[in-house]
Specification:
heterodimer; A: 190 residues; mainly alpha; 2 domains; 11 helices; 51% helix; B: 288 residues; alpha/beta; Glutathione S-transferase Yfyf (Class Pi), Chain A, domain 2; Rossmann fold; 4-stranded parallel beta sheet; 3-stranded parallel beta sheet; 14 helices; 7 strands; 8% strand
């Protein structure tokens, strides 16, 4: 390093919830200066309990309970508008992914959200079959969340329109895939 | 350039019409799209919102087996996940090593990934496509809807302008249609909340349908299975919820291009569309 090089301070390396979010997926919450451009373009900001720029601020202030129990993190559609428009490369979409995982690990998931159950069923299907069979996925999700009759009227139309094949796909290598999921859960360490 | 096709899970199910029409259009262009052998699910939103390592490992597993060919993708969500994994793995040696241990083999993150729109517009080129147009879609006003994940984040997908993409518009123009200027090209439809919280989808997709209608669209063209499903299959629910009447057929862009190329309707699976397009096509004198 030459003498002229200016030392940079890594402002994201601050510990707390902000540091954890940064370590988990590279989001940079400490770089936010509250311009609220993320919230202006967010498709769910008007309906959620918090707006994206508010969540970033609360992460900076390490307000764990309020952030991890918020509905917002489960209503974010991962549309990437916030991350695209952010002038500070905060990447709120990646921040939300990290917050979802931290919220689940801490058992703080907002009551009434079905997203974690859906994600589990989805990933379990990928582990077992290698691909998603949409009809099987929907049936398992509706059984798990006891929403059996929601959208049931769509089934005959979807069959008629040939949107739902009667047989699901299967890719070989199930044992290898299960091992792969196990290694991923262990962080890919040796 | 040689391609292998990564159809993704939806194209074997709810988006079978996208699959069929893609292959029909490819056949007209002499574009060979052999399916990537033993591809597995990209993990989609379920993976990236659960475990970032798994979200990179699942695409890596498929991309590593492409054998040097360019991976052609139709689904916007698969496209986003494959590109995101490439971006992460190629830029981070430590992550590359972790992914290698998870997948059981090294992958360098360099397999090229292209969306069908990029292949058609940039690699085959509009001039060549123009030569295959047999029945121009004259007078058909199309709102080209790109959704979220083709364009965003632009430094990763490198697809087109993130706020005002025009690839699909230019393709539709080449097919003889009239693409419309409208502001909701890249607004979110609500994606997989169709299953977990449909109220989000009804609200967001209503905005898109309302704007397309206000812009004077006859129909919408999409490039994503979830966008198509939400705008088409949920259209009646949306009309009931908000007391509106849209009746806007929601095509895959490959179906419209296929019509212009003279493909027979059954090769394009037009019968799978929930908002039936026959009346519109007949009124515009577009045979099918």
């Amino acid at each position: 390093m030459s003498a002229a090089t200016v030392a940079t301070i890594e402002i994201e390396d601050v510990g707390g919830l902000a540091g954890e979010v940064n370590a988990r997926g590279g989001a940079r919450p400490m770089s936010c200066f509250q311009c609220a451009k993320c919230s202006s373009g967010c498709p769910v900001a008007s309906r959620a309990d918090l707006k994206p720029h508010e969540v970033v601020r609360m992460v900076q202030l390490d307000q764990r309970e309020a952030v991890l129990t918020s509905r917002f993190i489960w209503e974010c559609t991962s549309c990437q508008t916030c991350s695209t428009r952010c002038p500070q490369q905060v990447d709120p979409a990646a921040m939300n992914d990290a917050l979802r995982a931290i919220s689940r690990a801490a058992r703080k998931v907002a009551a009434g959200t079905a997203v974690p159950a859906f994600n589990d069923i989805f990933l379990d299907a990928v582990r077992r079959r290698g691909r998603i069979y949409e009809m099987g996925l929907m049936v398992r999700f509706k059984l798990r969340t006891r929403r059996l009759f929601e959208d049931i009227g769509k089934a005959p139309m979807m069959l008629l329109k040939r949107k739902l094949p009667l047989m699901g796909p299967h890719v070989g290598g199930k044992a290898g895939r299960k091992a792969m999921f196990r290694r991923a859960a262990q962080g890919g360490d040796q | 350039m040689s391609y292998v096709f990564f159809p993704g899970c939806s194209l074997d199910g709810t988006a079978k019409d996208f699959h069929r029409s893609t292959l029909a259009v490819a056949a007209k262009l002499g574009l060979d799209l052999p399916e990537l052998k033993d591809w597995i699910c990209c993990g989609s939103t379920a993976a990236h919102s659960t475990d970032p390592l798994l979200a990179d490992a699942l695409p890596a597993k498929s991309l590593a087996s492409a054998g040097g060919a360019t991976v052609a993708v139709a689904c916007a969500s698969c496209y986003s996940r494959l590109k995101m994994a490439n971006h992460h793995i190629a830029a981070d040696r430590a992550l590359r090593a972790r992914v290698a241990r998870v997948v059981g083999g090294d992958y360098n993150g360099l397999t090229p990934v292209r969306h069908l729109l990029e292949i058609l517009c940039r690699e085959i080129g509009l001039a060549r496509i123009a030569q295959t147009i047999r029945r121009p879609l004259a007078g058909l006003k199309v709102a080209c809807y790109y959704g979220c994940l083709l364009t965003r984040p632009p430094e990763i997908t490198n697809f087109d302008d993130a706020e005002n993409p025009t690839l699909m518009d230019r393709l539709m123009e080449t097919a003889g249609a009239t693409p419309l200027e409208w502001p909701h090209k890249t607004e979110c439809c609500g994606a997989s909340y169709s299953i977990t919280d449909a109220s989000i989808v009804l609200e967001l997709s209503n905005e898109i349908l309302a704007m397309a209608k206000a812009a004077g669209a006859d129909c919408i063209a999409t490039a994503c299975p979830l966008c198509q499903l939400n705008l088409d299959m949920r259209q009646q629910d949306i009309e009931a919820r908000f007391g509106r009447r849209y009746h806007l057929p929601v095509f895959y862009f490959t179906q419209l291009l296929g019509l212009a190329m003279g493909c027979p309707a059954e090769d394009l699976s037009l019968g799978s569309l929930v908002v039936e397009p026959q009346e519109l096509l007949a009124a515009k004198g577009i045979a099918c």
